[in-house]
Design a protein that fits this description.
eight-stranded antiparallel sheet; about 375 residues; about 30% strand; nine-stranded antiparallel sheet; alpha+beta
Length: about 375
């Protein structure tokens, strides 16, 4: 197996301290948002044999296994991250596989440069994802029931929000959510900025259920995403709990440290809380306008101590092991590729000592014996 040397992404919303605290290093004074583990070409993990992209490209079947290559192609189908949100991320959705293929082909045909700021589809893949909390973790996930959203907006006492409240009461669920989100994102910027300012002041004054939106507004004053965010469910995960985010589900992470896994894609359609491009027509084509429960996931334990976060996705499978002091060595060998990540304690994986934030790549079929006392997340695929 290969010890991984991983890139930390310094996005502006990243925490200054969460990843340094986890890994036991001094903060740099700069935000540290995401640590990437995998073979994404944007920031592949490095090994003693070269980058993980180079290692896999040299012999895909040896590294990934024949079945994984036959199913997903000669690449690692997932990207594992440690995510540290010190401020809200953009409000966003991801396309399904058919939408991604269609959108990517269309932009390629029209000659839109892949690095153009207005490009929506960086690749032809979907991007389902799972976030598992390491600390208390706040996020937004899926639409509220329109009546509940109307109640929340009405409680602010802002006159310019009354048309949205009326629409949420008057229309069927799909139409109500679609029309209100469209109106929010299409409003004149000056008018929306005034509405957001009034709503933000009311959220600060009222507190309680409005507190998350007051905090969002402090980070994104005047942004229409502040109002759009109030259409969504607020959820607070406890350590060990997780959220699965499928195609078309609007969501945003607000604060906290977690382990995130996703299909290996960069496709994001934004709908607020960002200075980046917002393509309203394409966004409306992708969003699923239906109220849903956030669906907090808790791991299901198996006889050998593996705790699995069940999702409907084959490109990734996330689980964890919590090894107590004195636990005998566990054989984690699989016929599929895996990344093992330590998040607490100290464990030995093969010949590698792993503390929090350290990880290894284990090729398909390679012996993977783990011992010690600590928490280990396992990322792999389903074939």
């Amino acid at each position: 197996m290969d010890r991984l040397d991983n890139t930390i992404r310094p996005y502006a919303w990243g925490s200054l301290t969460a990843i340094p605290h986890l890994t036991g290093v001094e903060p740099t004074g700069e935000p540290q948002a995401e640590m990437w583990m995998g073979a994404h070409p944007g920031a592949p993990s490095r090994t003693a044999r070269g980058s993980l992209v180079e290692v896999i490209d040299a012999n895909p079947e040896a590294e990934l296994g024949k079945e994984a290559v036959a199913k997903f192609g000669p690449r690692l189908p997932f990207l594992l991250k440690i995510l540290a949100a010190g401020a809200p991320l953009s409000l966003q959705v991801h396309p399904d596989l058919a939408q991604a293929k269609e959108g990517y082909a269309d932009e390629e045909r029209r000659g839109v440069p892949v690095d153009a700021p207005h490009r929506n589809y960086k690749d032809a893949n979907h991007k389902p994802e799972l976030i598992c909390a390491l600390t208390e973790f706040d996020g937004l996930c899926g639409f509220r029931d329109p009546v509940q959203a109307a109640y929340l907006l009405a409680g602010l006492g802002v006159d310019s929000l009354k048309p949205y409240v009326d629409l949420l009461h008057a229309r069927p669920e799909d139409a109500a959510l679609r029309e209100v989100l469209t109106a929010i994102l299409s409003a004149a910027p000056e008018e929306m900025a005034r509405t957001v300012a009034e709503a933000s002041a009311a959220c600060t004054r009222l507190g309680g259920a409005y507190t998350p939106y007051a905090d969002i507004a402090r980070h994104y004053p005047g942004d229409p995403g502040v109002i759009a965010a109030m259409l969504l469910n607020h959820v607070r995960l406890q350590p060990g709990e997780a959220l699965f985010l499928g195609a078309g589900i609007p969501h945003a992470y607000l604060d906290g440290l977690g382990v995130e896994i996703m299909a290996n894609s960069d496709n994001v359609l934004r709908c607020g809380l960002t200075p980046k491009h917002v393509d309203v027509p394409e966004l409306l084509r992708v969003v699923r306008f239906e109220a849903s429960d956030p669906g907090v996931l808790r791991p299901e334990a198996s006889a050998d101590g593996e705790e699995v976060y069940e999702t409907p996705i084959d490109e990734f499978r996330l689980s964890r092991y919590v090894f107590a002091e004195g636990t005998t060595a566990h054989d984690l060998t699989l016929d599929t590729p895996q990344i093992l990540l330590c998040t607490a304690g100290s464990v030995r994986a093969g010949e590698h000592e792993l503390g929090p934030g350290r990880s290894v790549f284990v090729p398909a079929g390679e012996k993977a014996a783990v011992s010690g006392a600590g928490t280990v997340f396992r990322a792999t695929v389903i074939v």
